[in-house]
Amino acid sequence: MNNTPKSLRLQIALFGRTNAGKSTFLNLVTGQDTAITSPVAGTTTDIVEKAMELLPLGPVLFLDTPGFGDTTELGSKRMERAGKVFDRADVAVLLLTADGWGDAEEMLVAEIRKRNLPAVCVVTQTDIRKPSDDFLQLLKEKGFESVIFSAPGERENVLNSFKAELLKVIPAERLIDPPLLGDLIPAGGTVLLIVPIDLQAPKGRLILPQVQAIRDALDHEASVIVVRENNFLPMLANLKNPPDLVVCDSQIVKRMAAEIPPEIPCTTFSILFARLKGDLKTLTEGAAAIQSLKPGDKVLIAEACTHHAADDDIGRVKIPNALQKYVGGTLQIDVCAGRDYPANLKEYKLIVHCGGCMFNRAEILSRLQAAKDANVPITNYGVALSFVSGALKQVLKPFPSVEKII
Ligand code: SF4
Fold first, then answer.
1. In degrees rounded to 5, what are phi and psi of residue 58?
2. Which residue out of 250, 268, 303 has the highest number of ligand 1 atoms within 8 Å of its CB and is therefore the one to mutate?
3. 149 in any annotated domain
4. 306-338 confidence digits (pLDDT tens)
5. Tell me, what's the pLDDT at 199?
C-alpha cells in the first residue's frame, strides 16, 4: 500500500455555479490537466477526484463538483451529485467570477453555514475582470473576510494564498491525526492483534484497519504482535509480560472475551474505528437499542462500499442472523450500499452501518447526523456483534466514558 487511502486524506470540495472556473482552478492548483475545462457551461458532469500532497497540509483529495445553477433536468441531476459531496467535504471552496453573486451562491453558502463547514472563497478569472470594492464588501458580509484571486499563469501566488487560507480556516485538530490506539498503551508498550485469516481475507495482504493499527502502534513506539485466531492463547502463554492491549476482529470477539484473562485490556478493530472516525458514544447507544427490537421491526444495514457479497457475507447474512437470533424472530432487513443512503430513515427501528473504512470521518459523521435527525438509533457491525455476543461491556473497558452505557 504505497499511497495514502482516500479516506485518510483531507477532502477539499470545489463548489460553484456552472462555468465559475472550478476545473480551471483545480488544474492550476494541481499543475495538471486533471479536469476537462471548456467555455461551454456544465462540462463537469460527475465528481472529479484528484489526490495530491499539498504541503504543509499533507495528503489531500480535491473533489471537483458539477456546477450549480443550471435549471435543466440534467442540471438538477448534476446538483444532486454535487450536493452529496457536502457529506464528505472537510473544507468547502466557493468559486465565483467577479460579477457572480446570485441564487446559486446564496444556496451554497447557506449549506456551508448549516453544516458549519470551514470555507474559502476564490474569485476566478481576475485576468478578465477584477472584483469591485462593492463586490468584495458583499463577500465580507457573507462571511469571507479574505478572498483569493485566481488567474491563469499565476500558479505560485494562487497556490500560496490558497494554502495560507486553508490553514487559517481549518481547525488545527483536523490537521493532526488522532491516535487509533496509541493513547491506550504506554510508550514502549506491546499490542497483540488477533487477525483471522478466513475465506473473506484478501489474498496476500492485510486489510486497511489492520494495517492502520500496526502503523499507529509503531508511531507510538509500541511493539506489535500479530497472530491468527487460533494462536493468541499460546502466544499469551509465551510472553514474559502480558500485552498492554489486545485487539481482535469483531467476528471472534465472543471467543476472545471468554478466553482472555480479565485483567488484560481488550477491544476490537471496529470499536477503535468507531472512536476514530465516528462517535463511539452514539454507536454504543445504538447497540444498546438492540434490546428494544422486536420481531417484524425494520432494520437498515448500510454499507459504505459495493462489493461482491460472499455466501456468509457479514452485512447480508451474519449480522441479520445474529440480530434475529437475539430478538427471537424475523426482522425486515433492508440493505443499502455505496454512497446511496435512503431518505426514509424514519421507517427504521435501527441502522447498522459497516465500519466505513472507505469513508472519511466527515462522511461517517454526516450519516450519524442523518440518523439522529430521523431519531433512529445507529450502531456499526462490530459494536452490534460485540453487543449480541455479550462481550460489549468487556471490550469497552478501555473507554471509561462509554463503558457505563451498556
Ligand atoms: S467496512 Fe464498509 S467500507 Fe470498509 S470494506 Fe467493509 S463494507 Fe466496505
1. 105, -160
2. 303
3. yes
4. 766 667 788 999 999 999 999 999 999 999 998
5. 67
